[in-house]
Amino acid sequence: AGCEKEPSSYMWIYILLGNMLRGIGETPITPLGISYLDDFAKEENVPVYVACLHTIAMMGPMFGFLLGSLCAKLYVDIGFVDPGSITITPQDSRWVGAWWLGFLIGGAASFLSAIPFCFLPKSLKKPEEANKDKTSHGLLENMNFYTSLKKVLGNRMYFTFLCSSLLQFSGFIGFLTYKPKYMEQQYGQSTSKSNFLIAMTSLPPVGLGIFLGGLIMKKYKMGIIGATKFSFTMSFLAYAISLLHFFVGCDNYMVAGMTVSYE
């Protein structure tokens, strides 16, 4: 019991609250943006516009990893210590990068990008010719929240899509979260280089795929069934190719008590 250390700082609580507030502020952008495109754009152009929206959204994590790569090269106490007095390098296991700098830069960028939203009108006039053939408009207008939620979740196609998206994003988030650390441990890369490689090799292909998917749907004018078949085929091929990850890697490091015995 004497070896246990009490936490000396509760700054992580502020980081937790900051991320929570950021999530609350960013949540309306995607659903309301897609709803706006669906209501005001021509039906055949909606897939391309939604694809552009998601493609631009993928640029955020890409620049985030690049920013993390840059900050990881800077010592954690940059601005408070003499750089010449630092005797370790980013390749040293004792190195701690300026992780806090990304929060300041990202927060300032988010604040500046939010200013134009203050000048948008409170309501927009919907063109008469837009989406005049959509029959689902107004279907849930006269229902309360719980009734409409029950009706939406009772839609088998929507519920299946919801479960599929949950599984896809769970795997994708785990991939982005642990792959940099895996590259550090298995391939001996620094934190800075791992983040840089993730930003340049993983996220741009995803954004390009989203954009190409929107173009294909627009070109062939896919309906709900066609889009479902297209999504299933592409997802199946992606998961099949992902199985190749099991054949790529290095031998585990020899760690006493874990991979080898103490003897």
From TrEMBL:
Any one GO cellular component localisation term in the record: basolateral plasma membrane
Pfam families recorded: OATP (PF03137)
Membrane topology summary: Multi-pass membrane protein
Entry's Gene Ontology molecular function annotations: bile acid transmembrane transporter activity; sodium-independent organic anion transmembrane transporter activity
Gene3D superfamilies: MFS general substrate transporter like domains
Coiled coil, from the record: none
Entry's transmembrane regions: 12-34, 46-76, 96-120, 157-176, 196-217, 229-248
Keywords noted in UniProt: Disulfide bond, Membrane, Transmembrane, Transmembrane helix
GO biological process: sodium-independent organic anion transport
Principal cellular location given in the protein's record: membrane
Entry's localization field: Membrane
PANTHER family hit by this protein: ORGANIC ANION TRANSPORTER, SOLUTE CARRIER ORGANIC ANION TRANSPORTER FAMILY MEMBER 1B3
Designated name of the protein: SO1C1 protein
Species the sequence originates in: Drymodes brunneopygia
Taxonomic classification: Eukaryota, Metazoa, Chordata, Craniata, Vertebrata
